[in-house]
Amino acid sequence: MLSFCDHNHRNGRREFLRVGGLALGGLTLPGLMSLQAQAAGSGTLLKNKSVIFLFMHGGPSQIETFDPKMTAPSDIHSVTGEVATKIPGVTFGGTFPKLAQQADRMSIVRSYRSGDSRHDIKPIVHKDTLDANLGALYSRVVGANHPDKGMPTSAVLYPRAIDEKMMPAITKFGKFDSPGQMGSAYAPFVPGAGGDMQSNMTLSIPQNRLDDRRVLLTKLDRARWAAEKSDTFAASSELQQQAFDVILGGVSKAFDLSEEDPRVVARYDTAPLVRPETISKRWKNYQRYIDNAQSLGKLLLMARRLCEAGCGFVTITTNFVWDMHADNNNAGVAEGMDYMGVPFDHAVSAFLEDVHERGLSEDILLVCTGEMGRTPKLNSRGGRDHWGNLSPLMLSGGGLKMGQVIGQSDRHAGGPQTEPIERKDLVTSIMHTLFDLGELRITRGVPNEVVQVATAGDVIPGLF
Q: What is the pairing mode between strands 3-9 and 154-157?
């Protein structure tokens, strides 16, 4: 646990810093840094890339997103129309005009299928990933914390990372922060959710003292001064001193959007696009639609900040909002894409522009998909139902080849017309972006099960 404490004694005031279990399993922050330092020294294993996996929970329509099929009958083609992209002859759904203008920075896979139509959180967590978030597998190889910066190497961002008043995470379909067989020491860090790792990075100073920023800064300065004067600190190992500097140096700042340029925050912000009063209250998902619009852009901004600060794998979800049946819970496709497609178009476009301007496009891979797609034919209420035989998939950056469409769907967007791309191929492509898979196979200490997950599929053709 890390805590800054303020105690009053008859003999005077003293401040002390305690850096301990930043992850679970009894492994201290210096210990985790030491493990990753060993992994980082293993030659060409690490490619120094990061992955942001934006999970479109609920199952987005392949037709209204990246494969509009406007030549198909009216009960099949995109109900939002289409928009021309920068790739000649390629169109996106009508709520993606901003993304269409950046299609040269994406690869769209039109032959990807998730394999079944169940509501779960595949491929990010599944029995095929050892019931672990892909980020936990990544951390199992590189260590739970960055060796130089102390940043957790894997994180999961829910809407509560932006605002604690938002709905809690939806876990009945699976736990996004599951470490699975990797063990709790490798669980992704979950900011703003009250989890164990989050509470272990709190400042234990009474709330009334936190109200004044100057008091807090004074406390930190005194804590550093006291520690530097102590014999224990002077005699501590280099890694222990590094751990101290990491925490006081501001790992937590990466999670704090107030540290970002307000103009950049405004650029990402999706809240103004879908106001609560414009969302129909007839849907039980009403609050989830609000949370999505209020948080999506800022979650992508936070993810970019985490990657810059040393996090290698960030999962984003805004909680089960893409399930467009037009039933009691969910809006139909036309209305639902107003609630979901418009913020998605804005947030992802802002991200792509931002990382390009910062020179980070080669360093960060963005993956956007969900657990399944939607039926090619509209139901009688104007919704689309579950469909596992074709799913939308978009990738951007990471040093991969962009500005292309990979594979083709059949004429009704009901299944792959070309060779199907499967879940295992997506997982292998992600792992191939992060690691040299040949080196991974021979790296000491990496469990065989992790290697098997990473290499079970083929890389998506045309990406590398």
A: unpaired
Is the torsion defined by CA of 162, 107, 332, 328 positive or negative?
negative
Per-residue pLDDT in tens (0 to 9) along the chain, 464 residues: 343 444 444 433 333 333 333 433 334 444 444 445 555 445 689 999 999 999 999 999 999 999 999 999 999 999 999 999 999 999 999 999 999 999 999 999 999 999 999 999 999 999 999 999 999 999 999 999 988 888 999 999 999 999 999 999 999 999 999 999 999 999 999 998 544 444 444 444 444 444 444 554 565 566 656 666 666 555 555 555 555 555 555 678 899 999 999 999 999 999 999 999 999 999 999 999 999 999 999 999 999 999 999 999 999 999 999 999 999 999 999 999 999 999 999 999 999 999 999 999 999 999 999 999 999 999 999 999 999 999 999 999 999 999 999 999 999 999 999 999 999 999 999 999 999 999 999 999 999 999 999 999 999 999 99
Q: What are phi and psi of 109, to 5 degrees?
A: -105, 115
Q: Where are the beta strands (DSSP E) in 132-245?
A: 154-157
- The conformation of residue 170, written as its DSSP 8-state character, comes to P
CA distance linking residue 124 with residue 131, whole number of Å? 9
pTM listed for this prediction: 0.85
CB distance 335 to 274 below 8 Å: no
Q: What span, in angstroms and rounded, lies between the C-alpha atoms of 65 and 345?
A: 10
First and final CA of the chain: distance in angstroms?
42
Tokens of 263: 């103009």
Q: Which of 231, 243, 215, 258 is nearest to 21 (CA)?
A: 243
Helices (H) and strands (E) in the chain, counts: 15, 13
Strand partners, 152: 145
Residue type, 373: G
**Exposed/middle/buried for residue 436 (C-beta within 10 Å: 0-12, 13-18, 19+):** middle
Whole-angstrom Cα distance, residue 112 to residue 426?
Answer: 9
Chain-centroid distance of CA 202 in Å reads 23
Residues 6+ apart with CB under 8 A from 62: 110, 373, 374, 390, 391, 392, 409, 413
Q: What is the spatial distance between Cα 5 and Cα 2, in angstroms, rounded to a whole number?
A: 10
Q: Enumerate the H helices of 285-422 as residue ranges.
A: 286-308, 333-357
Q: Amino acid identity, residue 179? A: P
| Owner of token pair 């009053």 | 8
3-state secondary structure (DSSP) of residue 176: coil
Q: Cis bond leading into 123, ω under 30°?
A: yes
The shares of helix, strand and coil residues in the chain, as percent rounded to the nearest 5, are 40, 15, 45
